[in-house]
Amino acid sequence: MTVLLIEDERALAKELAFFLHQHGFACTVARNGQDASQATADMPFDFILLDLGLPDTDGLALLAEFKENGLAAAIIILTARGAVEDRIRGLEMGADDYLAKPFSLPELLARMHAITRRRFGLSKPLVPMGEFELDVQSRRVLHQGELITLSLKEFDVLAYLVLNRNRVLTRLQLSEHIWGNLPDTGFDSNYIDAHIKNLRKKLGRFASTDWLETVRGLGYRATLK
Amino acid sequence: MRLSTKFSLFNALSRVAIVLLLVGVLPGTMSRLALLTTDQRLAQTKDKVLRLVYRQGVSAFIERGQKSYGSYNLLKEEFISLEEIPPGPNINVIEDSKRAVEDEIVTYRVLSYSFAQQGRHYLLEIGRSVGSIGETERNFRRYAFFILVVAVGLTTLADLAFFRYLVEPLRTIIRRRLRDVRHPAAFNFDPIGTSTDDFRYLDQSLREMMTTVRLSFEKERKFIADASHELLTPLATLQYRLDNMLGDEALSEENQLRVVESQRTVYRLRAIIKSLLLISKIENDQFERTDTVSVAALVAEVADEAQERLAVLELRLDQQVEPDYQLNGANRGLLFTLLFNLVNNALKYNRPGGDVLVRGGYRPAPDGRYELEVRDTGLGIASERLATLFRRFNKGAAADADSYGLGLSIVKTIAELHRLEVEVNSIEGLGTSFRVVFPPA
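Above: the input entities. Below: the structure tokens describing the complete assembly.
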């Protein structure tokens, strides 16, 4: 899939592009509004990651321009401006999602996957996970068709690990994903350990959970094909 | 006390003092006045009688063969007497003296005057009864008192009206510039119309100060926006780089651990910046307060959010919000943060298997205000720490590595924005109670 990253901070753009490239996205970087307009005229994109604070134009104006030109790309607004009004305006103007900087890269990936599912529909709505299946849309975990009851947060942890499969997610990244909407009171990573313990217990009754690995000192990983 | 009240009080008291003074002085003055008037009248009567005597002779009064003449009016209030006397020194006095009239003794003010006519000496006496003088005096006093009261009343009213007119610009200044103006965004810069130089100067100075305050608020707002961008953007770069490094399978295990440690540091820095910016934004009034928030609903929402943590920590949370309370002009998100921080602390610093009570209700009279209490059965806080509990970066000994010491500062700032009070009580080893007290209805 193709991504247009509109970001004026060179170092930041570089890291984001590197990450997207690693996850199989073809990434084009535009450093200002003019470059971005040019790029969208040149080729179609699946995703546009739009920084609102651009040197030559307002990001929201650019968003309006994209919508006016009928671009099909899914647009995610990335900005350090965390103001709710910006967020609401951006979404009202047709953006698909909004991430306040700094966000974690696995979070960005999860959001992009969510948009892909929502917009394009997955050919297989069930994501295989060992002997289990994850139904992201309806937030269910199944074992040979049988439903396994998980708490909301347990499901969030599991789905995040599965969407970022074969990649270590630190406790901090997991905490932030689950409680990112809550005030910063200091995430207690012990909760993550408790959730993983519960997940292993609940899923372990049905089949092996060896694929849900603890990576010592780092965090957890869902090692899946 | 308001200026106009003070002035009215002073005005009324000074008038009362004047009235009292006059009432004290008036009787003496009035009797003196009545006496003077009487004496004057006696002298005038004397002159009239003498003119008659000179014109028509004594015989007009004293008939032939008689030695004297006397005449009373009907009520014996006045008399005139004329009698022949042996030669002697001249008499010309006015004094009080008792006279027998028919069968009673009456006290008169008597003018005695001696004169000679055709070689004979006469004594003229003209008297006015003291009783009738008293009557005159009482009349004087009545009229004077009446005039006094009317004068005092009229001048008091006139003074008050004028004073009100005079200080009206001051009242406008207070109303428009100071009352209910909590934030520079609500400043009203319209000049106040007045012909009084002092008020004009006061208003102008206030407007200049308000301009300065508004400018510094705008500068702060800009600084917050800049700080958000300039501090968080490089941090984002750093964070993405660390995220990418973690995804590098070639990275040694040792270096991976270092990266995780760095990630923690970046996260910590980020969380501190975000918390400080949140406090600054609240203080800079960048949050709208247009929500009506039900305390019971808020508690339920926070309790719901805390469910997972409660289960993990094996704690119980009891909600007792009875009756509910609706806070108008609030920011729901901020109030959620306030309560969540308190509940989160109650979880964090509890003992295993402990309880958290979230209780809402009215305080007993005479206080009567609504309060929301978050009480835990945890470690408690040493009494010497309580005074500085809400200061920034104030961390207790029990705080873990994930604590920044900003949670309670945020609580305090949000509370102040909503005009709520926060009280804390704690017994070491038993637990802590935070009470959020709502403004009286």
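Note for the figure: The helical segments of chain A are 10-22, 33-42, 59-68, 84-92, 105-120, 152-163, 171-179, 190-204.
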